[in-house]
Amino acid sequence: MTPRPFVVSQRLLASALLRPGQLWSSLSPHRRYPGGPRKKALLIAINYSRAQNPNDRLSGLQQEMEKLKALLLKQYGYIESAIVVMSDEDGIDPQLSPTRENILREIERLYEDQEPGDQYLFYFAGHSCQKDTDDKKEEDGRNELIMPVESYPPDGPVDTEKAIVDDVLKELLVDRLDAKSRLTVGLLFLLLERGY
């Protein structure tokens, strides 16, 4: 049986960031002891600051992600080296720019050396959209997509071909998860209704 991820709603995530005393029960508040579960996190925040259309640009997502990172370090016993941060801020290592290729690579790396009982957190803050599909597995006839930074180029329209489809995320994040490990997913995004 495939384990189900715990998905954190925007409201719950905002509550957790504002009131650290009322945090997610799915994240163990105990510090890691030798032989205990490893805790790893992949945190992605994209402002699309170079998007051609100013209305597509977001703000404040990196700051919210930094609050979450501080919370994981202070309250939940994560260690700095086990948290990967991807953003489109100036000066970031190009390998950590939230492009499609880089995001998929870092998701693959998240589960390197996976052991039963490990705890994982995947957090994405940015744009998402839906796109029509003939796939019969999609009850609503639409795929859900998260939009990497290059989906919003500085010199052209939104490019959904660069997006990451929900089926790919399920395959990489859920299907590869050991039955005794735990995955928490936090999604904070703006859903675009443009009829892609």
Automatic annotation (TrEMBL):
Peptidase C14 caspase domain ranges (all copies): 38-175
Superkingdom per UniProt: Eukaryota
Gene3D superfamilies xrefs: 3.40.50.12660
GO BP of this protein: proteolysis
Single GO term (MF): cysteine-type endopeptidase activity
Entry-linked InterPro entries: Metacaspase, Pept_C14_caspase
UniProt GO cellular component terms: cytoplasm
Annotated family: Belongs to the peptidase C14B family.
Name of the featured protein: Caspase domain containing protein
Taxonomic source organism: Lyophyllum shimeji (Hon-shimeji)
